[in-house]
Amino acid sequence: METMERPSSFAGSLRRHPVLSVLGGIVLLLLVVAALFDWNWVRPPIERYISQKTQREFHMDDLHVRLGLAPTIRMRGVYFGNADWSKEGKPMAKAEQLEFSISLRDLPEKFLIPRVALTRPELVFERLPDNRKNWILAEPSETRPSKLRISTLSVDQGQLRYIDHGEPFELDVAASTFDPAKQEKAKDADSPPANERYSTRYEFKGLYHGAAFKGTALTGEVLSFQESGVPFPIQGDLQAGTTRVRVEGTIADAANISGIDTQLRIEGKTLANIYPFLLLPLPASPPYRLEGHLVLKGNRYSIDDLRGRIGSTDVYGKGAYIDKKPRPLLQGELHSKNLDLADLGPLIGIETKETGGKPQLTQAQTRDRPTAKSRQKRVDPDHLLPSGSFDGSRLQKIDAEVDLRATRLKVPKGLPLEDLKASLRLHDAVMVLNPVDFGFAGGTIAGKARLDARAPIIKSDVQIDLQGIQLGNFVPKDSVIAKGTGRAGASLHLTGTGNSIADAAAKANGRISTTVVNGQVSNLLDAASGLNIGKVLALLAGGDKDIVIHCGGAVFDVKDGRGQSTLFVVDTEQTQVVGDGWFNLADERFDLTVAPKPKEASLLSLRTPVRVYGSFSDPNFELKKGPLLARGAAVAALATAAPLAALIPLIETGPGQETDCGKVRQQTQRAAKQATLPAKRQGAAKPDAESPKR
Hints:
By secondary structure, this protein is of the alpha+beta class. It is 19% helix and 43% strand. It starts with a helix and ends in a 19-residue tail after the last helix.
């Protein structure tokens, strides 16, 4: 009986509370209406509202809504017109089906869409040089951040075209879900997103500054965006010319990248082929391969375990890019155990497409090293000083801290370079290279430079010192010539203005000086310098020996790129060598005359000044004909009278003058200081205990 009384008791309570009975009736009515309601009844006014609000044509063939705490909206046959300024002549968006859900509990703070599912979409995104974008519907002056948030996106059989008319940049992407188990989920906005395995394939191709590229990428079921909490796995392969890039790892936000953890690998036939993408003419290197672990945390991109090879040169180390204000910071710490200078080529004279100068290089012109080197030679065949322009504005947009250490250097035969230590610091458009030190002939080439790019024309200040150079290192061990001893030093200090090395050199002002301290030189070389054939023959028969260099030095004053000698002398026990001449950095030409003056009498001497002249890239030399012709004529005349008398003009009577070495040392004080520095520089790169990880 008790169970039979409960319904009547409930009905009685409703009669006692009429408000509850009304609310219950309304809820019941809404459920019935919702079950029977056709959402296509409201489709026409929705289409008119969106079309009027956006000033673009919008329509759909079918509309359906599933109610709940996260209502799901499904549209079929969607069409959304493009901006009236579009150059493509196609709608911005078409889709066989668009389905998305809305999180009501996040309103009104934000309009959160947990998942968008697209079936056979065709999308066209465009950007104009004035930064107008066809997917931005708000006024250009609108600065408030959008409340719209899309967490994840899945695509089944989609097409995307992106055109940036200002860059210029074109990209075409075809997407498809290839995993049968994921195909239905890709169309369902209510399906919980999961990226536990690769299931979607993207094929892409495009053009960047006229350079073609193509590739493929595999991802999970969904592209992960803001606030999704779903990792976005990616495995990609990009090919551009002869360059290939591979990446595998995870990305936190596919649209606004906030976290990266990937393995990166780049390889190609020559670094020059990257030019169309970096807009920097990297050297025509041999084939290379570089790889590392790329991580993004906060505003810091770091690449650890960087390793690889450029030709026969090994490279390893680490780097970072920190996105901060007022300028980002680039950091690098690079090492090499065996650095081949021929592999790296000219790393200076940076030319960009925007700065003019040398003609821009295409992918076809830089596809491999022989082609790239041939092209570079045709562009600038006669000059040694790089004429490519530095883009000063680029130095204004980034700061940098980069260090390079090379334990051993492989260099052309006869050039005794040993190791390298270099540091670059760039801050507020002022770049300082200090030090740039080469181990050289038992000493050091110590350089430093300052480039000030705060104005349109770059100001440069360069100083190079040769410290403690050992003269004996310039003579091969198995040579019949005595090695000689002593140290040489030199100092170069030039200032100039110009946006290329060639321009700055052409306007340079400063001083160049060099000297020898406590030196001894081969007696054979000393005799040969004076064309003393008799002494040369005697030394070759009896053996060479060292003779003392009393002093030696050369000084050139440089003004507007032209250097004029104010001192040029080498004084030994047996010979005084004096010289005079000039060089011009603007046209890269020089003309020097060196005159030996023996201090002792000798037989069979053809002593005559030697002229060395020409361009930096193609030097020539000649013996002064006047003295030679005079002696030759005397020899011929006397030979007709008596054969032995013909030797008289070939007898050197001497004596050459003694050099005022005190005055020489006074004019070469800084160079002399460099010469007396320790024979081996401190802080040279040392071989590591073990090779870097491979």
